[in-house]
Amino acid sequence: MTLTFFWIFGVIAMGSALLCITRRNPVVCALWLVVTLFALAAMYVMLDAQFIAALQVLVYAGAIMVLFLFVIMLLNLGRPGPTDIKGPVGLLLAAVLAGTLLFQLRVLGGAQALPPSAIQLPPGSLAALQARQGIVGAVAGPLFETYLVPFEIASVLLLAAIVGAVVLAKRKL
Amino acid sequence: MTFFIVSSAIKVFAVFNLIMVGVALLTLIERRVCAWMQDRLGPNRVGPQGILQPAADGLKNFLKEETSPAMADKALFTLAPIVSFVPALLTFAVIPFAAPLPTRWGVVPMVVADLPVGFLYILAISSLGVYGIVLAGWSSNNKYALLGGLRASAQMISYEIALGMSTVAVLLLAGNVTLSHVIAQQQAAHAWFIVPLSVAFVIFFISAFAETNRLPFDLPEAEAELIAGYHTEYSAMKFSMFYIAEYSNMVTASALMATLFFGGWDIPFTTWDSTGDPSVLKTLATLVVFGFKTFVFLFTYIWVRWTLPRFRYDQLMALGWKVLLPLSLLYITLLAVAIWFIRTQLGWEYGPGMAWALGGLNLVLLIALVWWLDRGRIVSGSVQEEAA
Asked: Do A54 and B121 touch (CB under 8 A)?
């Protein structure tokens, strides 16, 4: 059952990602990217990470991509542009890169690579955690207790990026 | 398993039809209430008191010619109403609408899907609805429609933040995002969250108007400036789908306000509905109560629409970013400190005592807020006029 859904959403994610980079119209590209993000959210649900899935849809599909569309429409880029594929050399380079990546995947898949033992959880512990703290608490607990300082530093970093963007965009404050 | 599938299918069917019929009646109620407020009669010709007017409108929309602008992007032009229609109908799925119903095969919870992510699902799915409006604006190849779409995307993102922040207050108190848990906690404590979280309700209420694109925040339509905004080029069923989406968003927003802040299907001043064995009578009674609470908010939507003028666009953005967002952040901070103090220093659990203690804090904040927002214009202004 889960495997069937995995294949369905996997094909959707791959297909829409391909369409996203091959369509010529920026608005259509952005929409295919939304479909990709949505399929990824479905993957998260199958991994029992419903909260991450909800955030994926809420933040990426619902907010960031709307801003993308907003900018595309505001700058009136919505007309199909010239193709990006740069001649036979570019095509060859792309094929070599893709081949290397696929080969690496094949090697990794053959070795049955597991995540490092430090981040592996004993089976069933995630479900127990979610039953005890709720699905949001399971994410919020580590984030605001164990990793509070890195979290705060990351937020300061983001704030600095926002301030920088405002300073760059607005010459006269 | 079979029982689950069959009961779920029946619930999906019932909720879908209830929303569609509710939306149809709501269009009639809107026109009748509007007429009543403007001292006219409104549509009263089709059927007794005009009750069949929505059916006539629906039939008209089915038979009307579908127009499509010559230079429009055909595929996206067709996709836009669908994208706005589907999320609007999906969001109601997580809202519990009555007490559990006992059947011969088991007890059925009266909610389509009690997801572990709760109202985050509503926020996530409803944030997708904006694509319909943006795409409609862009694909019509019409400058007014494009302006409407642009406004919609900026507006809905801005107010989504304030809306999400105001629900954080509910999270702080309830400690869980599932709506059935939120309702159970309000029932057990005999105190709806409107008492301890009234400021959050005010923020939620204002943001919900902006999220559903209703007056005074219907800038994406703004017929005085943009003809009809994003749906200028639409006709017949496609236009109707935008219309149905708007009204079903209203229904979901009203139901969510009733659930988060007014106890959902809880009947006030009694424990009969939430304790003891489930019965058919309890289900029916709580369903009626829930329907009534939702209707009160729906009526408020209509009431506000025909009372307030439309905001200017810069005013809308200033309210969202300079007032509601800092206000909700400040409120969450204050509330978190207050809840921490009550829970750890006084050792109280959520109950009437804690609810009214927080209620007092909220009352002070609300008075300060109204005084600050008013700044001698409406409330104190009229007092001065009377004195003069």
From this structure: yes
